[in-house]
Amino acid sequence: MNTAVLQFPGSNCDEDAVKAITQTTGKPAELVWHTAEDLSAFDLIIVPGGFSYGDYLRSGAIARFSPAMSAVREAAERGAYVLGICNGFQILTEAGLLPGALRRNESLQYRCAIVPLTVVRADTPFTSGYTTGEEIYIPIAHGDGNYYVDDATLALMEQRGQILFRYAKEHNPNGSVDDIAGVMNERGNVLGMMPHPERAMHEWLGSADGARLFASILTTWRNAHEHANA
Amino acid sequence: MDAQYKAAIHVTLKASVLDPQGAAVTKALHALGYQDVQDVRVGKFIEVALAAADETSARDAVARMCEQLLTNPVIESYTYELTELTV
Amino acid sequence: MSTPTLEPTAEDVRERQIYRSFGLTDAEYEQIAKRLGRLPNYVETGIASVMWSEHCSYKSSRRILRRFPSAGSQVLQGPGENAGIVDIGDGQAAVFKIESHNHPTAIEPFQGAATGVGGIIRDVFTMGARPIALLNSLRFGPLDDAHNRYLFGHSVAGIGGYGNCIGIPTVGGEVVFDERYTQNPLVNAMCVGLISHAQIATGAASGVGNPVLVVGAKTGRDGIHGATFASTQDPHAKERSAVQVGDPFMEKLLMEACLELIATGKVVGIQDMGAAGMTSSSAEMASRAGSGIRLDMQKVPRRETGMTPYEIMLSESQERMLVVMQRGEEQVADAVFAKWGLDATVIGEVTDDGMLTITEGRQIAAQLPVALLVDEAPVLTRPSSRPAYLDALLPGADAVVQASAAGDFTDDLLALLAQPTIASKEWVYQQYDSMVRTETFVRPGSDAAVVGVPGTAKALAMTTDGNGRQVYLDPYAGGALAVAEAARNLVCSGATPLAVTDCLNYGNPEKPETYYLFERSVDGMSDACRAFGTPVISGNVSLYNETAGVDIYPTPVVGMVGVVADRSHITTSAFGTVGARVLLLGDCNTPLTDGLGGSEYLAMRAPEQKLAYALPAFDLTREQAVQATCLAVIQAGLVQGAHDVSDGGLMVALTESAIAGKCGLAIDFDEVLPRTDYSAAQQAALLFGESPSRIALCVLPSDIARVRDMAAAHECPLWDIGEVVASPAIHVRLGGEQVVALSVLQAETAWRGAIAQWMK
Q1: Can you tell me whether residue C582 is helix, strand or coil?
Q2: A80 CA to chain B: closest CA distance, Å?
Q3: Do A148 and B69 touch (CB under 8 A)?
Q4: Top-level CATH class of C571-760?
Q5: For C323, which DSSP code?
């Protein structure tokens, strides 16, 4: 599996995503500068966390116009996996690749903590290593993580099974609608989430629950790949 | 010759979207004794200086900027005033 | 067309004594004129005055700072550079420094604290190091005051806003509340970086003809004379326009570009533009190399129009660096900076005339000898006199505190846990990204933070410590205690202490009593640094922290870094192993005679007496024995948890360990202290007194014999005082009766929620 980790001016979780992929696949992910126009060589593209363009104007608003984001759109259309984490999730919503938007946290404060999440669906490429309803612990670190979507879209997303992660009951850290922590596109190959799975790769980091997300993608890719080759 | 314009753009969260900053400011104003304050919306003010052939094309450009970059239509709405600058 | 305002002439500067408004005394002005053999013009007067300000010249403190030990086999770079460097083995080194931003924070807390963080990060990456961690040491007035809450809340947001954006984890620090800091909050920021020996860069402008570049942000009118205003008594009198605004996004780009540029090997010298901006950076770079520098102000990229050479030279616009490249390699800088969307502009060159020459095009705007600005700045011998109050302190054991109405100490413990100085700082550190870079082994809230060294089994432990009230009550011992506590925190985490960076925050040095406190506390710190083998490799002095004649407590803050040889040694303060014993390294019974002097408990129960009693005795030899034992038993793998006893005394330490370990504790002093006639004050002193040199350990019963042997070998007292239990409650027996009975949940609620309650 070939993985790209995008780098925008101001990205700062790019190296952490590379580490997580290296640990998962045994092969380092490639850091790709935001000016890249061709991502056709990649099976998985990670839009990492950080403060692209300083989060000025709105988180993710400027990054989404970069050439690499046009290439991400094309990659998503051909069926490659796209994972947006934190600022990456914000960029994907700004780009319209995922529904909704991320507002200031309800507390108006930045919040960094390891929080419990509920896995809503375990039958997706991103979550097959979990079980439905399982409680996992993944760190958050954001000031604009308050997910918003209007009621009609929310109902549609529910119906289509686009919600993959929710903050556990009583643990919503930011005021997100319906406790939503991570959502998928309709086709099922683009995931955006505020929590950082790449920060939960070892028990000594506080949790190893994030490792299974990357392992899920690899397993799904391998199955599809071997199937195609068979 | 293009004319010079200044667009004063106000961006706020849509009325249907909860504004946590506005809620906090409302509370703070109440605490300071401004009991008559009923609602506060906190937004952004953006000033854009631009050259355009005429007012219509200036308005058209400003509206496109707002929809493409300056606001996120999922949660924000905007208004603007356009002034022609006399040189 | 408006007529430009003309700058005063050299004669005007003298006749109208304009130099006084820049902070120069008549004598200093005359000294400069005499050295030049002519009257300095307006620009020259401005340059000389900032270079001779307390902030840049350390004129009041320089003589005293020489007392610090600064040498050691581990030291690769001592004081005098942008940051100090210590060897951590395998060709790698740790780079660190702490710096104050107290005065800017008092005026505009968000930007003041944020730019403090920005400045210290630049000091570290200027050396060529990758910053890997931030810490900060904060002091504010009590939270029952709305303005103090404003300063505290906005400072924390500013610190987070900067560090979070740039992607360096904020992993530790401390926050203390006391009315002595109400008008003068302290914000001391520390940054730690990693570097390989081969990559070390310095701030020397050598090589005649080498180009001098300004890189990063454009220059505006912000913060002009900020360095001067940092040294005046009333920062509030200065208008807010002098406050600089930070841009962490710009700094992130600048950091990546500078590290990339340094890695090319084409950089001769590089220096951050901090206080006094281009003036101090150019003068210091020339001074280090014994060279001169010529700069053309017309070439400096500016953000505002109509800026004069005076304004450009004194601007404190943030996120700028001065770089000297090898001649002919300018395009290397161009290419690297262009990738990051930044400017790198040649504005001058290195000369051999020993002069700082400022031109505007071809016209000379200012020309001053570098030596005059740097080496010849005044070094003052300030009068020093021992404050009378020090000789009027009562013995700590005389502090009488009545038992609470309930007859035991449960309520006292609960109340103490909710004191903002002692309470959990979760409200603070949850606003900081402590995990980015995914190397944070021990997150905020334990004794020291621990951050992994990528590619090795090693880790770095780091802490900041300082207790102003203790230094006030005994400057020598208080200074030594600050160092001892920092070392104790590192040792409790499994690290060997390596070196110190210090931030020395005091009041007005022109008061002989204040100067005495400064001098004596530096002596105490110096002796402790020698004892622990931790030289001072960098630091910063902040004086004039005074309002309306009242000084802050003398508050030296010690930042210390240690190395954990193997990650398996990493130990936290959590006691979470049911059935393990609770041991105390150090003396169990000295608190009975030491009493409550200087303690948080006394400050809480009898605020009017908190400065009336002497500190508990401090013995450096005992402290060394305790620390050596602790590190040895941790490295031998015999320890489940370790926590140093400090603010709030033994019971606060044990309760914090129980909360972190999600277990209960059954503490029983009846065996080790069998008497049954202790007074309430003695009991309180044992439970809450702040006698130094004590560490609580959590040890499996099967390991106790070996721990005992190792303690004996180090001549360190060891006491078995209790057990970790599954039932989530803390019970303490003392003097034949139960003196504390408290559920861990209740303790945790009081401790965790206290600051958030105030900040709602």
Answers
A1: strand
A2: 26
A3: no
A4: alpha beta
A5: E
Q: What is the DSSP string of C689-752?
A: ---SS-EEEEE-GGGHHHHHHHHHHTT--EEEEEEEESSSEEEEEETTEEEEEEEHHHHHHHHH
Write the residue in B21, B69, B72 that is nearest to A104 by C-beta: B21
Q: How far is B1 from chain A (nearest CA, A)?
A: 31
Return the domain boundaries, chain C.
Answer: 109-186+201-373, 571-760
- Chain A residues with at least one Cβ partner in B under 8 Å: 57-58, 61-62, 65, 93-94, 100-101, 103-108, 146, 148-150, 175
Q: How far apart are CA C185 and CA C150, in angstroms?
A: 11
Q: Are strands A81-85 and A190-193 parallel, antiparallel or unpaired?
A: parallel
Tell me the fold of C109-186+201-373: Phosphoribosyl-aminoimidazole Synthetase; Chain A, domain 2 (3.90.650)
- Which tens digit of pLDDT belongs to each residue from C169-223? 999 999 999 999 999 999 999 999 999 999 999 899 999 999 999 999 999 888 7
Q: Touching check for C756 and chain A: CB below 8 Å?
A: no
Residue extents of the structural domains in chain B: 3-85
Residue C490 contacts residue C562 (beta carbons within 8 Å): yes
Plot region of C418 (φ>0 → left; ψ -120 to 50 → alpha; else → beta): alpha
Give the ipTM of the model, two decimals please: 0.97
Which pTM was predicted?
0.94
End-to-end CA distance of chain B: give it in Å, rounded. Answer: 12
d(CA C618, CA C554): 18
Q: Which of C475, C474, C449 is nearest to C462 (CA)?
A: C449
Q: What is the pLDDT of residues C595-641, one digit of tens each?
A: 999 999 999 999 999 999 999 999 999 999 999 999 999 999 999 99
Q: What is the CATH number of domain A3-229?
A: 3.40.50.880
Q: Which stretches of C321-452 are DSSP H helices?
A: 330-339, 370-373, 410-417, 426-429
Residue ranges of E strands in chain B: 3-13, 44-52, 76-85
Q: Which CATH superfamily is domain B3-85 in?
A: Phosphoribosylformylglycinamidine synthase subunit PurS (3.30.1280.10)
Contact: C434, A10; criterion CB under 8 Å: no
Q: Which residues of C touch A110 (CB under 8 A)?
A: 157, 160-161, 164, 431-433
Partner A contacted by C349 (CB < 8 A): no
> How does strand C459-465 pair with strand C555-564?
antiparallel
Catalytic residues of C: 55, 101
